[in-house]
Amino acid sequence: MPKSTKRQILTALAELLQTKRLDDITVTELVEKCGISRQAFYYHFSDLYGVVDYAIQQMTGELGVEAQGDWKSAVERTVTLLREYRTLVLNVYRAYERSYVEHHVRRWAMPLVSDRVRAAAVRYAVTEDQVVFMTEILTQGLVSILLSWVERGMPSAVIDRLDDFYIIMEGSLDATLERLAQKNKR
Amino acid sequence: MMTMMNSVKRAGFRALYGYLDKDPDANIPKLMDWVDRFAGDGPNSFPTQRSAFRRVIENPDNNWYRLIRSMWTDIDGGVRRTFFENFMLNGNLIGWTVQEEARERYGCNIPWAILLDPTSACNLHCTGCWAAEYGNRLNLTFDEIDGIITQGKKLGVYIYIYTGGEPMVRRDDLIALCNKHSDCEFLCFTNATLIDENFADQMLRVKNFVPAISVEGFEEATDGRRGEGVFQKVRKAMEILKERKLPFGTSCCYTSANLDSISSEEFVDQLVEWGAKFAWYFHYMPVGNDAVPGLMPTAEQREQMYGRIRAYRRTKPLFLIDFQNDGEYVGGCIAGGRRYLHINANGDVDPCVFVHYSDSNIREKSLLDCLRSPMFMAYHDGQPFNENHLKPCPMLENPEKLREMVARTGAKSTDMQSPETVEHLCGKCDGYAAAWDGTARRLWACGGGCESCGQARVQHKQAG
To answer: What is the three-class DSSP state of A172?
Structure first.
């Protein structure tokens, strides 16, 4: 069965989501829109949530490809992409528990933050544990900012506090690593 | 209350599985301490079974321990988890309570597994098999199978077994059904020639599909019956499955002609080496107008089978089942919906894969109404058909019972190609039943080495 069937299903679901909530959509309705059989749908997905999972995978896949270079522009690109998939993301956010969306956002954000922290950490005598701890704290900060933006319905492409977050992160990295290294010496 | 009990079971089971999965070598032996603590010492605490199980899991050389342990070395982690969850937890622990409640409420049999033929079509043309003759004419549609499973789950049935025809002719639909019913376990009797890399990848994706591959013995015997080159294709399929750490078993039909060879130690060792985790043995049944009664094993041969399978169960890391000789473990005949039933590609609901007399079609009735039909109620009321569980079947060992049930209920032959009268069928079994009777009585009286029967073992020991 061609890969495009999955894409076709995803597109049709995104269209249905313009006017309906995920919980009000049926598989039968979706396959009619696609012009495929029910078994063709179930060959690929267990249920509609499976399609949403696939959408998220696709999205983070696209991000993975693009997330090179400067981490700030990677964040900006994510914000743009999230807004592109706005209806889908918001539906997922409302249909699922917040923790589900949080899990995916974290999975995406962690490597970005981690790369940045590690790039700075090579200059200091800090332990792996300390690097991981810093990464976790900073990731948590970034994730909260993004989620509260999603919570508010992604009102604009400019996210409050994101600029301030960049300043805090860039400004504190070296100072913090320096102090951790000093602590390790003692 | 039921829901709450089930979520307690689910949580407990998952915690237990997580514990085992983390370090099976260290934690499998500890499992029994945990069970003992919960079971207590009461009369319903299964002391004999528990001590048998303890002997197994505390001895790394024990064949059952090796089989259980191989679930961690030979099987993909996700597939293993799904098997425990769907088969053990849903199919047994949770399914059983739902089935029991339905049995009580409706006063009829409620199965543990449903066998169904997605199609009557087959890609091979084996000697003596009717499947190829039907062509593609008869199929249960995706929606029909989906409907059966959806109804089944409401009654607590989470185990579905495909028969045929060659079910894999409908492989895309089978994957779709695995996906849709991701809480069920699917088993599939297959000639394996349609299992390729792509299908195996799909199996790995859905995680709940287990093939039972038909083998007739070694290359000569398999190709002789199934066609040139089939044996090599089967071997190839097994390799593909093994490479991906997918579980599979085998299915063998024993006849007077092949019994010695396919029950030989050499062959069983071969099955283990190929990577099979279970081997299902079926006694040849003289079903159909074209059947060859001479292929039915003699009483001596069946006794040989009885002895050999039991000996292998004590020594080989393989789960062996001898469908006709294992009645003692399941209280005799399990057909007629008591533990299973069979739905053919025409929708006819047969009490058994071997007994094609029915008064119900799934296209006309709900699954529950089929179970409450006169033919299924005759099974329900008649079971066990014999107190000697080595004579479990209302056809093979008790042919007068099937004659009576068919006459009383007016069940019709569901053989689509050549309907056979019950008299014709049972007439072929009378002589067999009489010949087997003496052996069955002697074996049944003995008991001895049955792990499930503590009493017999004690007597056996005292006698020795």
So the answer is: helix
